[in-house]
Design brief:
The complex is a heterodimer of chains A (233) and B (302). Chain A has 233 residues and is an alpha/beta fold. Chain A contains eight helices and seven strands; from the N terminus they run αββαβααβαβαβαβα. In chain A, helix 1 packs across helix 2 and helix 6 packs across helix 8. In chain A, 36% of the residues are buried. Chain B is mainly alpha-helical. Chain B is 78% helix and 0% strand. Chain B contains eleven helices and no strands. The chains are: A alpha/beta (233), B mainly alpha (302). At the A-B interface, loops of A face helix 3 of B.
C-alpha cells in the first residue's frame, strides 16, 4: 500500500510567536515592572521623546550593545502602545531553546529573521505589522557590539526603509553597554539614556541595492552624530 | 524527610557522582580510540538539571508526583503533536489534552479499575470528532495520530504515576527511573567504546550489538546492587525484571526513533541541552513503565 499520509511540518519560528489576548496582557504587565526597574534602578532618561510619539508606522534603527537595549526602547514608548512595538530578532539565537524563545516573545514581541538572508514570510509579516500602524525595532549591526562602539550597519535596514517607505528614526542608546555587556549575567545600576534623532524620510530614493547600503550608511552616520552630541550633556 | 526519602537522595547524588567518574574514564578511552566524545559531557551535565525536578516531587509525596507526571505527559504529547502536525487542529488538541487529564484523574483516588478502563472512553470520545464536525477528509490520519498520542504519551506514561501509589511506590519508582536511565547511558557508553556491529542500521544507526549486551549486563548488575530498594522481590523475578527493563527500554527508544525517521527530523524538541526534547529523554521510560508496574503489582500486590 502506498503511503500517502501528509505530515504537516512542525510550527515555524513565526508561527510560535503569534500574539493573542493572553500574550498581549502578559507583555503589558511585564513592561510595567521593566519600566519601574528602568526608572529607579537605571535612572532612565529619554531625550527628544516627541520624535518617537505619534500613531503612524515607523522603523527604529538603534545601536546594539546589550540585551537591555530592546527593553530601553520599549520603555521609551507609552505603555498603551506596547503591543504595537515589534523587534526583529535572530532566529539562530533566540529560537535555540524554549526559554529564550519565551523571553524574546513576551518581553520583546519578536519577529524572527535569518541573519543570513530575509525570508519572504518574515518580510510579509513585517509588512502587515507596519500596515497596522506597527513600530518596528531593528538593530542594523546585526549583533551585539563587544566593545561598546558602533560597528558597520548592514544593508538590510536600508532594504526595509526603501521597501516599506516609512519614516526611519535613528536612536542612540547610551549606557547599556556599561550595565550589561555581552556575557554579563546581571545588570549593573548604571544610567541609561535613549536619544531619538530626527525622523528620516527616504521615500524619494529608488529601491536598489546601492541605495540600501547608502541608507544604512546614512543611518549609521546619524547615530554616530547623536553619540557625539550627547557626549558632554 | 523519612528514611526512604533520604535513601533516594543519597543514591541519586552518589550515582550522579559515580557516572561523572565513569564518563571521565570512558571519554578518555573513547578519545584514545579516535571516537567523538564532545556531546557526552553536555549530556551528563544536563542530568543535574533534570534530576531535581523529578526527585523532589518523588520524595515530597504521591500527589505532587502524579501532578508532575501529568504535566510531563501533556508536554510530551504537545511535542509529539508539533512534530506530526496534529497541532494545526486546535480543537482536537484540546480534546486530547482533556483526555490525558481524564486518564490521570483516577490515579489520585487509587481507582485501578477505572484507570485501566479510561483509555476506552477517551478513544471513544476522540472517535466522535468526525461526527460532530460532519467531516471525513483526512480524518483517519488525524484520529490515528491523536489516539496514538493519547495512548502512548498519556496512558503508558501514567503507569509511572500509578506506580507511586503502591505501598512500596517511592522506592520502586526510583528504581525504575534509575534502571531505565542507566540503561540508556550504559548502552551509549558501551556502544561508543566497543561498538562494532550495527543492531538495526536503518532505524537507528548508532545502536550496536555490543552496546545492547553491555547495557543488559549493566542493568542486571545495577538491579542486584540496588536490590535493597525492593527487598521482597525474589532473585529470579528481579533478573527477569531487569532484563525486561533493558530490552523494552531500548524498544521505547526505537519507537520515538522510527517516528522521527518517518518525519525526517533529528530531535523532537530543544528543551534539554544535549538531549533534545522531552521525548528524546523520556522515550524509554514510557515503554517500560507499564511492564514494570504490572509485573510488580500482579506478583506482589499493592
Amino acid at each position: 500500500m502506498e503511503n500517502d499520509w501528509q505530515f504537516d511540518r512542525p510550527p515555524s519560528a513565526l508561527e510560535l510567536v503569534q500574539n493573542n489576548f493572553f500574550s498581549n496582557f502578559l507583555r503589558t504587565v511585564l513592561h510595567v515592572f521593566v519600566r519601574l526597574s528602568f526608572r529607579y534602578y537605571h535612572r532612565f532618561q529619554i531625550l527628544n521623546k516627541e520624535r518617537l510619539a505619534g500613531v503612524q508606522a515607523k522603523i527604529i534603527a538603534a545601536n546594539h550593545a546589550s540585551h537591555l537595549d530592546v527593553l530601553a526602547l520599549f520603555s521609551a514608548f507609552p505603555l498603551r502602545d506596547i503591543n504595537r512595538v515589534r523587534t526583529f530578532a535572530a532566529k539562530d539565537y533566540f529560537f535555540k531553546n524554549p526559554f529564550l524563545r519565551c523571553m524574546a516573545f513576551f518581553f520583546a514581541n519578536v519577529i524572527p529573521i535569518d541573519r543570513q538572508g530575509w525570508s519572504a514570510e518574515s518580510l510579509a509579516y513585517a509588512g502587515r505589522s507596519l500596515a497596522a500602524g506597527g513600530i518596528l525595532i531593528i538593530f542594523p549591526e546585526g549583533t551585539r557590539s563587544v566593545d561598546g562602539e558602533i560597528h558597520a550597519f548592514r544593508p538590510g535596514t536600508g532594504m526595509l526603509a526603501l521597501r516599506y517607505r516609512v519614516p526611519m528614526i535613528p536612536v542612540y542608546i547610551d549606557g547599556t553597554f556599561s550595565c550589561q555587556k555581552k556575557g554579563d549575567c546581571f545588570p549593573k545600576p548604571h544610567k541609561i539614556r535613549v536619544v531619538a534623532g530626527a525622523p528620516v524620510d527616504f521615500s524619494r530614493l529608488e529601491n536598489t541595492r546601492q541605495n540600501w547600503e547608502a541608507v544604512s550608511c546614512e543611518l549609521e552616520l546619524r547615530i554616530k552624530n547623536l553619540k557625539e552630541e550627547i557626549k558632554h550633556v | 524527610m523519612n528514611n526512604d526519602a533520604k535513601t533516594v537522595v543519597w543514591i541519586a547524588g552518589s550515582l550522579l557522582g559515580f557516572f561523572g567518574l565513569i564518563v571521565a574514564l570512558w571519554s578518555g578511552i573513547a578519545q584514545a580510540r579516535g571516537r567523538n566524545v564532545k556531546s557526552i559531557w553536555t549530556r551528563y551535565l544536563a542530568w543535574f538539571l533534570i534530576a531535581p525536578p523529578i526527585i523532589i516531587p518523588l520524595i515530597w509525596g504521591r500527589v505532587p508526583f502524579i501532578v508532575l507526571m501529568g504535566l510531563l505527559s501533556l508536554l510530551c504529547f504537545r511535542e509529539y503533536a508539533h512534530a506530526v502536525g496534529l497541532w494545526r487542529d486546535k480543537a482536537l488538541m484540546w480534546i486530547c489534552y482533556i483526555g490525558i487529564v481524564c486518564i490521570y484523574g483516577p490515579i489520585f483516588g487509587f481507582e485501578y479499575g477505572i484507570f485501566q478502563a479510561m483509555p476506552i472512553y477517551v478513544i471513544a470520545f476522540i472517535l466522535t470528532v468526525p461526527m460532530h464536525r460532519d467531516e471525513y477528509e483526512h480524518m483517519i490520519q488525524k484520529i490515528c495520530l491523536a489516539v496514538l498520542g493519547v495512548v502512548y504519551f498519556g496512558w503508558f506514561f501514567s503507569h509511572l504515576a500509578y506506580l507511586r501509589n503502591l505501598s512500596y511506590g517511592m522506592l520502586a519508582t526510583f528504581l525504575l527511573i534509575l534502571l531505565v536511565e542507566s540503561n540508556d547511558a550504559c548502552a551509549y557508553l558501551w556502544g561508543t567504546v566497543f561498538g562494532k556491529h550495527k543492531l538495526i542500521p536503518r532505524l537507528s544507526p548508532n545502536k550496536t550489538v555490543e552496546g545492547m549486551f553491555g547495557s543488559i549486563l549493566s542493568v542486571v548488575g545495577l538491579a542486584f546492587a540496588f536490590r535493597f530498594l525492593i527487598p521482597f522481590v525474589s532473585a529470579a523475578h528481579l533478573a527477569v525484571l531487569a532484563l525486561a527493563v533493558s530490552v523494552f527500554g531500548m524498544c521505547g527508544d526505537l519507537t520515538i526513533s522510527f517516528i522521527k525517521r518517518d518525519l525526517k527530523i533529528k530531535d523532537m524538541g530543544s528543551l534539554i541541552p544535549g538531549h533534545g526534547g522531552l521525548l528524546d529523554r523520556f522515550d524509554s521510560i514510557i515503554f517500560t513503565a507499564p511492564i514494570f508496574f504490572h509485573f510488580l503489582r500482579y506478583l506482589y500486590g499493592e
